[in-house]
């Protein structure tokens, strides 16, 4: 499918949003893909790319060509470029902002992610007791997961890096579940940023290898669920996003305990930025052509 320069630029910007989100503990790149309206196409494209790779390994070139043609490279190429750019730049810019203005930044992201709940919720064609239960279970799981204490590992081994990356990349394409947060919980968030900034290629390549294995496995499963259990999957995404809002609550105590703001802590800026984030997502949903295209292009099933 041919793409205009404007469309390519739009996908680059979508990639920047996703990559920037993946750097922030508590925010998911998958959530950003939902917000801009490319989530299901992205998962399908990743599944086709995985099938292409497997067909090449089997030397089945006819099947490989079919899967290659099924990948929307006009979207994936610019998207990957934007994600890579955002991760490299975001690793230097976003953590200092989170450290300098923790409550205000979390308020902004809380509003963004809370508004994104509307996206999968609107895609559920029929609400049933089972789907409500699926959402409730996923919300509970995400709430408990985001309450895990942060580990600190000064010098993680490469096997730990590989396995942690394989787990975290799955979260990065799941709306509501933050890959950066899982890296924190697994103890390699700070070492990964340091390795990226310091260009420690052994660490970086090991991390990329683990991420590739995790993505290849999980993207195929998620694509099948979206195609054959669409509404149930959307219900699960609603629950995951709702439960994971815990990670973005602006005021936390020791061991991630939730609390109300103390005297002297910012409240009005946090609320205002939360409203700005919520409103920004609503505006994007109203005007994003990609969201409209995906909504028309995907037919929900049971």
What does this structure look like?
The protein is built from 15 helices and no strands. With 302 residues, it is mostly helical. The chain has one domain. Helix 1 packs parallel to helix 5. The longest helix has 28 residues. The protein is globular, with a radius of gyration of 19 Å.
Keywords:
302 residues, mainly alpha
Largest sheet descriptor: none
Distance between the termini: 30 Å
Based on Cα principal axes, name the global outline. globular
Strand percentage, roughly? Answer: under 5%
Share of helical residues: over 70%
How many domains? The number is 1
Quickly describe the structure.
The chain has 302 residues and is an all-alpha fold. The chain is 75% helix and 0% strand.
What is the element layout, followed by pairings?
Elements: H1 5-23, H2 29-36, H3 39-57, H4 61-70, H5 73-100, H6 102-116, H7 118-123, H8 129-145, H9 158-172, H10 179-185, H11 189-197, H12 201-228, H13 230-244, H14 268-287, H15 289-297
């Amino acid at each position: 499918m041919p793409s205009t320069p404007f469309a390519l630029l739009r996908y680059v910007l979508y990639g920047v949003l996703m990559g920037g989100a993946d750097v922030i503990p508590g925010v998911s790149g998958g959530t950003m893909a939902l917000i801009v309206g490319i989530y299901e196409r992205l998962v399908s494209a990743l599944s086709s790319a995985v099938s292409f790779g497997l067909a090449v390994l089997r030397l089945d070139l006819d099947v490989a060509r079919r899967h290659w043609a099924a990948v929307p490279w006009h979207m994936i190429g610019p998207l990957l470029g934007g994600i890579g750019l955002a991760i490299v730049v975001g690793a230097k810019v976003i953590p200092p902002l989170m450290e300098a203005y923790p409550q205000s930044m979390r308020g902004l992201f809380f509003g963004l992610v809370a508004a994104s709940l509307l996206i999968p919720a609107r895609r559920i064609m029929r609400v049933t007791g089972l789907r409500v239960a699926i959402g409730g279970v996923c919300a509970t799981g995400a709430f408990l997961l985001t309450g895990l204490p942060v580990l600190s590992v000064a010098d993680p081994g490469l096997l730990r890096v590989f396995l942690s990356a394989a787990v975290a990349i799955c979260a990065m394409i799941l709306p509501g579940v933050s890959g950066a947060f899982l890296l924190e919980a697994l103890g390699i968030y700070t070492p990964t940023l340091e390795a990226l900034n310091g260009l420690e290629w052994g660490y970086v390549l090991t991390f990329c290898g683990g991420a590739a294995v995790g993505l290849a496995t999980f993207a195929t499963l998620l694509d099948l669920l979206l195609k054959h259990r669409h509404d149930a999957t959307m219900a699960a995404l609603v629950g995951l996003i709702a439960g994971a809002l815990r990670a973005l609550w602006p005021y936390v105590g020791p061991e991630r305990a939730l609390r109300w703001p103390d005297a002297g802590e910012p409240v009005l800026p946090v609320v205002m930025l939360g409203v700005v984030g919520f409103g920004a997502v609503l505006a994007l949903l109203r005007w994003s052509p990609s969201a409209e295209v995906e909504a028309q292009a995907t037919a929900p099933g049971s």
